[in-house]
Design a protein that fits this description.
Helices cover 45% and strands 11% of the residues. With 87 residues, it is of the alpha/beta class. It has a three-stranded parallel beta sheet with strand order 2-1-3, with helices on one face.
Length: 87
């Protein structure tokens, strides 16, 4: 996809409020993607482990491109205690 194509696309970023997602969102906005086309639902709006909510999110937002950055995080201790949960 070209930069011009990206600027006219509806871009969904999962995890846009997280460590990496914030930077990706800002980079898209700085590159000229209109803020209205950068779609960044919060966990409070969409629970990505709920299939019905994910289906509803796609129907609601109708993105052209998805950048999936959402993850379960918890730090080193949590990762050691429950590695499978974070895999």
């Amino acid at each position: 996809m070209t930069l011009d194509g990206l600027r006219s696309s509806r871009v969904l970023i999962t995890g846009a409020s997280g460590f990496l997602g914030r930077y990706v969102r800002e980079a898209l906005l700085k590159s000229g993607v209109p803020a209205i086309n950068v779609l960044a639902p919060t966990h409070a709006e969409v629970d990505l482990v709920s299939a019905p909510q994910v289906v509803a999110m796609y129907e609601w937002l109708r993105p052209d491109l998805v950048i999936h950055l959402a993850a379960r995080v918890g730090g080193i201790g949590a990762n050691r205690a429950e590695p499978g949960r974070f895999f």
